[in-house]
Amino acid sequence: MNHLPVEKTGNGSDWQQCKNVLCFRPDNMGDILMTTPAFRALKASVPGRKLTLLTSSAGAAIAPFIPEIDAIIPFDLPWVQTASRQKRDELPQLIRRLKEEAFDAAIIFNVQSQNPLPSALICYVAEIPRTLGYCRENPYELLTNWVPDPEVIVASRHEVERQLALVTSVGSTTTDKRLSLTVTDLARKEALENLARAGLRLTDPWLVLHAGVSEVKRRFGAEQYIRAARQLRTETGFQIVLTCSQSEWQYVETIRQGIGEKAYNLAGRLSLETFIGLIAQAPVLIANNTGPVHMAAALGTPVVVLYAMTNPQHTPWMVPNRVLYFEVPKQLRSRNRLLQHFPEPAEPRASAEGIVQAVYDLLGQQQTVPSAALTE
């Protein structure tokens, strides 16, 4: 391997020579999207730099639509919660592959509540000469560029800002801090065709309600979604497009039946590319705090997010939005101590009335929801 010599200065000046960089982000779609401004900074700072993203199988699904990413290594690591698991004996295969790629450097992107050292150890064993990451304790040889993590108990800044600050420490900056996501004309066309086939009238008002989540603890109550959707349909004629994964089809179907007419269940019927085309054209998205919220932010679609009080730093970025908070049921709360301290006040609290008013606010409509409007 012909690695560049490592300068242990800690100031990152030698990173400007690094053309082949591994971005270690083994998380979900939303985490990947919130890291895209940092990817942009890395690409912009060194002409010809190649970025390879090591991510989970879920993250790998969105990566082809991120223009800053040149290559993808999908791998579900045992210290990250994912829907699937690699076999134990596949980890040495991953390390061999990373060695063969002869990366000049690796960057460990992690949220404040995650420990970066397992990922750093993988890079160390793979003989990647430079590694950058946040860490609360001294990582010694595992990180050549250690940024002491200032967010010890509670995340105090947005995830986008956290990752931009990390790459800035090695000289990579950008003035464009928007999220990146590519949407094609074909995806837009196919999305509208799917709506028409489902029976939706494209000339009448519509919105998207994405009730699905990757973790049950972040799922807002179906009954309140139903009440809000029925109110929107009655007062403004909104058609409700319900989306979700195929595995949650029955849950979404329950919501559709509760709403009644002008509600359409598209759960599991759209490819990811077509789903992106749908979100790009939606007048507004209503969703739990999950991946589609960050897709909407990247595409400029206004979003109402029902935000479970877990990670506080994942609110919609640089897009018109309303955030409505709700507490995670006790039996579903994380055992991670760093996720048990949500900053207060977490206001306004989520409710059916709040959803309806948020939609009116974002769409510039003048209706005001009476305090008892949704008590039926």
From TrEMBL:
**Protein's recorded name:** Glycosyl transferase
Gene Ontology biological process terms from the UniProt entry: lipopolysaccharide core region biosynthetic process
Q: Which Gene Ontology MF annotations are present?
A: ADP-heptose-lipopolysaccharide heptosyltransferase activity
Q: Which UniProt keywords apply?
A: Glycosyltransferase, Transferase
**Classification lineage:** Bacteria, Pseudomonadati, Bacteroidota, Cytophagia, Cytophagales
**Organism source for this protein?**
Larkinella terrae
Q: Does the keyword Transmembrane helix apply?
A: no
Origin superkingdom = Bacteria
Q: Which InterPro entries match?
A: Glyco_trans_9 (IPR002201), LPS_LOS_Heptosyltrfase (IPR051199)
